[in-house]
Design a protein that fits this description.
Elements (H helix, E strand, L loop, with lengths): L15 E4 L2 E4 L6 H4 L1 H15 L4 H14 L3 H13 L4 H6 L12 H14 L1 H4 L3 H10 L2 H23 L11
Antiparallel strand pairs: 1-2
């Protein structure tokens, strides 16, 4: 189980980080974990609680789809790598962004979770449509659905933290 626990720390401005042979210049934005440690720890706890009882493959699919929608390259890179390490196929990883056109790659349960992820991530556009919610409710027991929703909330929060602090894809500090 991989969480975002250490993935949003920063070094001082102007330093470089080597990741996979590439050197990337750091920016001058704040270190969120250091600047708001109580908030950061609470978010880590929320993230860990949200995952409880969920299939790890489903967790990564949800996190990948929300990261696509939020244009969060940092989290997208992290979660596609985590999914690969967990045994996810390249075919499915490539199809997450276009899952509606490639439904045969995903189970009906995964499709319901991906649709719910999209609706919650884009909640300002149209709310969460009743049919999307009903489809998810048909595939998940109430407690599990609550955890799926909580996971969607947490990845959207992590995406916003990473984007706000200008995290650079490929610089996953968990390693």
């Amino acid at each position: 189980m991989t969480t975002h626990a250490t993935h949003l720390t920063h070094t001082t401005a102007g330093t470089t980080v080597s990741s996979g042979g590439a050197t990337v210049a750091e920016n001058a934005r704040l270190d969120f974990a250091k600047s708001a440690p109580k908030v950061f720890r609470a978010l880590i706890g929320f993230d860990a609680a949200a995952r409880e009882g969920l299939d790890p493959a489903l967790v990564e699919l949800i996190q990948i789809r929300a990261s696509h929608l939020n244009h969060c390259a940092y989290c997208l890179h992290m979660h596609t790598n985590d999914a690969r390490k967990a045994g996810e196929s390249e075919d499915r990883l490539h199809m997450v962004a276009v899952w509606r056109e490639a439904r045969h790659f995903f189970t009906p349960r995964e499709q319901a979770a991906l649709a719910l992820t999209e609706a919650v991530t884009r909640v300002a556009d149209a709310g969460v449509p009743d049919d999307v919610y009903a489809q998810a409710a048909a595939h998940f027991e109430e407690q599990e659905l609550a955890h799926v929703l909580a996971l969607i909330f947490t990845i959207n929060t992590w995406n916003r933290v990473a984007l706000s602090t200008a995290k650079v894809a490929g610089t996953d500090e968990r390693r």
